[in-house]
Each structure stands twice: as C-alpha cells, then as structure tokens.
Design a protein that fits this description.
This protein is of the alpha+beta class. The chain is built from 5 helices and 12 strands. A hairpin with a 4-residue loop joins β6 and β7.
Length: 181
C-alpha cells in the first residue's frame, strides 16, 4: 500500500495492509497511521527489564508477557489500535495489565491512551513508567468499574494486584541501566 496522503484517513483494513508493507511501530488513531518512531535506549531498556521481571514471576501460570503487541481499544471500525510496551494476557483473554514506558511526550500516555484504556473493562491495571525521570503510576480498576490511581512513586515498590506481583522500582531503574535521577 502507498503512503496515505497527509490528513487522509484509512479504514482499519487499509491500516493493517499499510503496516504489513512498512517497517516500524505504528498505532491506528482516528483513522490515521501514527508512526511511533524508535524508542530511546532508556525506554527500550526499561521495557525489556520490566518484561523480564514480570515474565519470571508468571512462569508456570497461564499468563504471558507480550512486548509492543497490538490491541484494539474498542469494537468499532475506527477504534484505535495501540501498541503498549508491555502487556500481560492470561488464557488468551484480553490484557490484565497494560504497561507504557513514557517518552518525553507524556501526553498520549496520560491523555488519549488513558481514556481509551479506561473504556476497556477487561483490563485491571495500567502501569506507567517514565523513561526520562523517576516516576511510576498505577491506575487500577475498582469494584464499581472506576479507574483511579493512589500515588505517584519515585522509589520503593508498587503492588500490581492484577498479577499478584510487587515491582521493586529502585531495582527496575538500576538494573535496566536507566538509573535516572
């Protein structure tokens, strides 16, 4: 498929055809192709280290870690397709845990993506980790369907209830090589 003209929109089928003929990481938002670009080394290191830790914790369970796996955030033709950095799926069902490593432009992760993920009742937690400064936030689905966070963290640990795991924030930043002040 040819590159879409600036400002033009695609159907989801056209988007899929586009991604099959182009290298890179892409998301589908408002009928448009969004080129995710190449993440920074710190971004990649944090995502890899997080995935390793979660994968080791999930060994022997029906849950699996996926890296940059595409998920649709709705059921409509123009529903966005996002590619979270780390995703946990169990028994082939939709995500229990979505993890985004935030780049310098944090707006999408705390804005549009948060709104889209909030509308997906099947997933339980949204973990945000900053790649530029120490910052971790977890949004959790409440019993009444709400979606809130408690505190922003820069050190210590955070419990991921969806997978019964405690993430050591200090060790994650240190062992990823992205030990950011």
């Amino acid at each position: 498929m040819r590159d879409p003209k600036p400002g033009s929109t695609l159907t989801y089928a056209e988007f899929v055809a586009y991604t099959e003929t182009h290298d890179g990481r892409f998301e589908y938002v408002d009928g448009r192709v969004v080129d995710m670009g190449i993440p920074s080394d710190a971004h990649q290191d944090l995502a890899f280290e997080l995935a390793k830790r979660i994968d080791a914790h999930l060994a022997g369970s029906p849950c699996r870690v996926r890296l940059a796996s595409a998920i649709r955030t709705g059921k409509q033709e123009k529903s966005p397709q996002r590619c979270p950095d780390v995703l946990v799926v169990c028994d082939g069902k939709p995500a229990k845990l979505i993890c985004e490593i935030m780049s310098p432009n944090r707006g999408d992760d705390l804005g549009e993506k948060l709104t889209e993920y909030r509308g997906m009742p099947e997933f339980e937690e949204y973990l945000l980790i900053d790649s530029v400064k120490r910052f971790v936030r977890v949004y959790r689905r409440s019993a009444d369907g709400g979606f809130n966070y408690d505190l922003d963290l820069i050190a210590g640990s955070v419990r991921l209830h969806s997978i019964s795991y405690t993430l050591d924030i200090d060790a994650l930043y240190r062992d990823s090589g992205a030990d950011i002040a």
